[in-house]
């Protein structure tokens, strides 16, 4: 019986059309290995920070949001690879600048949960737009493209 079922599945797999994988529509971002690793770490840190800010809001501690945003901004100041901005396509730089403006707003102590939620929502929307528009190529050796 199992042989018959296996044979049917095998036959069906040959009959059904194979759907080709969709062609990548996003734009590539090619970086040096150090830059690539930094961008990945920065994205992880931002996502963790937004999650922490949401936790602070849930715990009725909106004052923590500014401290957390200041910490992510300090991470950039302390660790951003020199010249990485020149490696980014212009549209990527524009989205990055928009995202940085939300972090700057969040880093200003407000204490107003509504303002904090609006900025974190806008920040995440920018992240989503960037991920819909760009993808990171595997790291390249030599000069970044």
Which structural class do the helices and strands define?
mainly alpha
Q: Kindly, what is the distance between the CA atoms of the first and last residues, rounded to a whole number of angstroms?
A: 57 Å
Largest sheet, spatial ordering of strands: 1-2
Envelope shape:
globular
Number of strands: 2
Stretches with pLDDT under 50, minimum 5 residues? none
The overall number of domains is 1
The average pLDDT is 87
Q: Describe the main β-sheet briefly.
A: 2 strands, parallel
Characterize the quaternary organization of these chains: single chain
Count of separate DSSP helical elements: 6
Q: Please trace the helix and strand order, writing H or E for each element.
A: HEHHHHHE
Kindly state the percentage of residues in helix.
55-70%
Q: β content, as a range?
A: under 5%
Work out the radius of gyration. Answer: 22 Å
Fold blueprint:
Blueprint: H1 2-15, E1 27-29, H2 33-58, H3 64-79, H4 84-87, H5 90-107, H6 113-133, E2 134-136
Parallel strand pairs: 1-2
Highlighted features:
145 residues, mainly alpha, two-stranded parallel ribbon, 4% strand, globular
Please explain how this structure is put together:
- The structure is a single chain.
- The chain has about 140 residues and is mainly alpha-helical.
- The chain has one domain (about 35-135).
- The protein is about 70% helix and about 5% strand.
- The protein is built from six helices and two strands, in the order αβαααααβ.
- A two-stranded parallel ribbon has the order 1-2.
- The longest helix is centred in the first third of the chain and has 26 residues, at about 35-60.
- The chain is globular, with a radius of gyration of 22 Å.
- The model has no long low-confidence stretch (mean pLDDT about 85).
């Amino acid at each position: 019986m199992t042989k018959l079922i296996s044979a049917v599945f095998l036959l069906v797999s040959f009959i059904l059309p194979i759907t080709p994988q969709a062609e990548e529509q996003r734009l590539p971002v090619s970086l040096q290995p150090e830059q690539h690793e930094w961008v990945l770490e920065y994205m992880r840190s931002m996502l963790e920070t937004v999650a922490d800010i949401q936790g602070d809001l849930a715990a009725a501690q909106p004052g923590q949001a500014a401290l957390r945003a200041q910490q992510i901004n300090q991470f950039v100041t302390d660790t951003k690879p020199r010249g990485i901005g020149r490696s980014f396509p212009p549209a990527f730089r524009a989205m990055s600048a928009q995202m940085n403006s939300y972090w700057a707003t969040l880093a200003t102590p407000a204490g107003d949960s509504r303002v904090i939620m609006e900025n974190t929502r806008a920040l995440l929307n920018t992240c989503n737009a960037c991920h819909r528009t760009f993808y990171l190529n595997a790291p390249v050796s030599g000069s970044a493209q």
